[in-house]
Amino acid sequence: MFETILIALGAFSVNVSISVAQLFLALLIVFSAVKLYKTKDFTVLNDWPAKFFILMAASQLTSAFAGINPSVSLSAVTSTWTYLYLFACMILFDGKNLNRVLAAFFAGSILNAFSGIYDVTITGMERAIGYYTHALTYGNAAAVVFIAALGLSFFVKFKDLKLRYLIYAAAVLSLIALIFSGSRGPILSTLLTVFLLSIYLYRLKAVAVISVLVVGFALFTASSPDFRKKLMTDRERQVGTTSASSVGTRIVLWKAAVKAISERPVFGFGSGTFKEYVDKNVTELVLSKAHAHNSYLHYAYSNGLLGLALLTGFIVSLFRYTIRRSKEYPPAKAAIFVLLVFLLEGLTENNFGDSEVVMLTMLLLAVLTARVGQNKNL
């Protein structure tokens, strides 16, 4: 029971405070280690997602020592521990108190959504950030929450009406928050995920559903000059002729990452060194240099093609596990699309290295794919 309370508190905190979320993660790791010691049940650790994650951690350490700045890389590698939300919750959570954990999660997400909406409508901020550090982080998290709420609304008919309405409210408010974030990558990832979800649910009827969404989005954009201005910023900055734009910056950094990977293809340059490489090798003016704005290229830059292969193995094995669970546990069907939108976001942002988004997503995946136990309220 106490473990469930910890997970519920973690589920709430991943939406509102990274520091508190990390505190609960540390506690969950301790409790999961104690449970493993007592039960000697290593089922989670013997499954392929955990095996690939352990290999990824080893690869990151190797790349850190073999990279261009080991002290910086070793410090940066520590952020990987946020992925342990996935395995700690897998070990501790049996699904019996799913309603309580989801209620805490979506209550936190609603609070965060209101905070972001307040940013734009009351304080006059150009882009919503809520309780997070950046509008892109906020947009990536809002997209994950929206897809989770949408998926659960379709796949699980909760007997608890309060929870059902809480999920509906979270879906609506997180979608508004996503739009207010002005983050095009997460918005496009969400649209594509909704399209794939519609195909899964409705087959040919999905075309009509997506058409309604596209028309609705177009009408909203046309009726909102401020939002249209945010979406058209790159056009106004003459994308294609300058790197000083969101898209232009990404193109320059993607090219730089590909060039860097070709220079050190096996172990890469080590985590936390991308800005150092860009400073030395990129002459174009760019808006940011911290990472490659593509999770896959950035991971390959940091850990080489060997690391990228292990990351691919982790993703594939996690997909297979989630699909396998979806045949027995309805909430896992929503988890498939949560994982999908998270991976799509990685095409335009380094969300794999964003602790706030990682903790939120990994906790959700673990909770929605609980291994044992039955919830009579489903």
From TrEMBL:
UniProt keywords (A-Z) are: Ligase, Membrane, Transmembrane, Transmembrane helix
What's the chief localization of this chain? membrane
Q: Which GO terms describe its molecular function?
A: ligase activity
Cellular compartments annotated? Membrane
Membrane topology, from the record: Multi-pass membrane protein
Looking at the record, the residues that make up the O-antigen ligase-related domain are 169-311
Gene Ontology cellular component terms for the protein in this record: membrane
Q: Which residues cross the membrane?
A: 6-31, 74-93, 100-118, 138-156, 163-180, 186-202, 207-224, 299-319
Q: Pfam families given for it?
A: Wzy_C (PF04932)
Q: Indicate what this protein is called per its UniProt record.
A: O-antigen ligase
Organism of this sequence? Seleniivibrio woodruffii
Traced from the root, the source organism's taxonomic lineage reads: Bacteria, Pseudomonadati, Deferribacterota, Deferribacteres, Deferribacterales
